[in-house]
Amino acid sequence: MKPTHVTLLAIPGIGHLTPILELAKHIVAFGSIDVSLLVLNTDASPAQSQLLTSTILPKGLEIVDIPSVDIACFVDEQTDVVTRISVIVRESLPHIESSIIKTARPTILVLDFFGTAALDIMVDNLCIQKYIFFPSTAACLAFVMYLPTLDQQVDGEFIHLSEPIQVPGCTPIHIDDLVNPVQARYVDEYKWFLYHASRFPMAHGILINTCQDLEPISLSALTENPILQQIPMPPVYPVGPLIHMDKPMVQSKNECMTWLDNQPNDSVLFVSFGSSGTLSAEQVTELAWGLELSQQRFIWVVRKPSSTETTSGTFFTVGGGEQSNPCDYLPDGFMSRTKDVGFVVPSWAPQVDILAHKSTGGFLSHCGWNSTLESVLYGVPIIAWPLYAEQKMNATLLVEELGVAVKPKVEKGEKVVRREEIARAVRLVMKGKEVQNAMRERVEEMKRSCLIALDEGGSSYNSLSQVIEKWKTSCIGLENVNDD
Ligand code: UDP
């Protein structure tokens, strides 16, 4: 029998591409298995294109561009990200299928969360087994697995419930923390989200970018909790944290790294809202004043303010694409008054290099799961400033369960975090000895546990090794049939 081939499907967005690319590299590193990463050809951001071209790819990993598909008749400018990605995947199915046919080998197909339409792919005389790669937390996965049940049980909007949502065996989810796509139930975004959630049980297994010590409660709910087990549940393999660790990502030193070299150890706060987060104009002003009032050193990745108060990821266009002049929207004189302590980077910065740098002592982050894992793996405490997707759940995990973050408060009746509160949170993390020491200790502890989990013999290493061993033999005896 021909050896098994692993085909992973990356969906658009650097927050999805980065971890699945890392997973692909880890699979290759286990040896004797060929891997293809299918990349959907969308209007990718420069950062995304750069990631694929600058990363040193191991022998045995092939990047396959899937031709772009015309989705103009299914979406318009207002269409949300979940719907857009789901439609792209659905329309790309023939291309995905033909790429599998080309390998002419038994295939393990690994799909990102929003790629579940590809669970239907069948090819005559070819054994294809399908897995899902979930690039976020176990807490979010448990919620997703439980969503079809909640959908049956709850009438009306989830956001109108008076009690937190109790996924069996998990920490209750505050209603305010619910992921964006479930905040309104009668729209396409929710329907697609539910569609993907209902299809998870069709997978042979789910790989997840977390590890035992980061999320013991949610992981045991997924694997042991009796009520959750009433839901058809494929085996769950925690294989994380998978982050981009090739060093350095930026070969020639850029200005911001040179500036960082000249700052004292642990003295700089890194401020960034992920690949596509933006703030309102009022919030940008308050943040600028807050940083200035805190009198702490900072690097701030600034973006042009959004026109609305609500922030949501755009995935496709930002991520280093849209350049603007920060002087147009930062308070008058901010740049000159802070020039000795601050460094403003428009749009995009080498985040992993900054977090890994000895001068970086704190991270004001939107709590995207990749940013969170990067911060933990480089031992940097967090100021949690969640914006969209599952980031509010992540922030609560960091503050309430892991103790590695503080969260600035929005006063009642306010739409923005005020400058005094920002300055307070910044000083607390960067200077407040007690809090700072406690958080640093916790984050160092987490970092150690994560590194142990990834190391040979660690829980995530063993989990990945177990699933790869299964893959190597999974189609034996089924080589001439499709077993789905
Ligand atoms: N990132 C970066 N430079 C930036 C902003 C983001 O390198 O200026 C990277 C960051 O290191 C992370 C990814 O983009 O790996 C963002 O993923 P995350 O899950 O944190 O958030 P998302 O962008 O998906 O909301």
TrEMBL record:
Residue ranges that the Swiss-Prot or TrEMBL entry lists as coiled coil: none
PROSITE patterns: UDPGT
EC category name: transferase
EC number annotated for this UniProt entry: 2.4.1.-
UniProt-recorded Gene Ontology molecular function terms: UDP-glycosyltransferase activity
Gene3D superfamilies in UniProt: Glycogen Phosphorylase B
Keywords, comma-separated and alphabetical: Glycosyltransferase, Transferase
InterPro entries on file: UDP_glucos_trans (IPR002213), UDP_glycos_trans_CS (IPR035595)
Any Pfam family: UDPGT
Family: Belongs to the UDP-glycosyltransferase family.
PANTHER family: GLYCOSYLTRANSFERASE-RELATED (PTHR48046:SF1), UDP-GLYCOSYLTRANSFERASE 72E1 (PTHR48046)
Name of the featured protein: Glycosyltransferase
Organism encoding this protein: Thalictrum thalictroides (Rue-anemone)
Taxonomy of the source species: Eukaryota, Viridiplantae, Streptophyta, Embryophyta, Tracheophyta
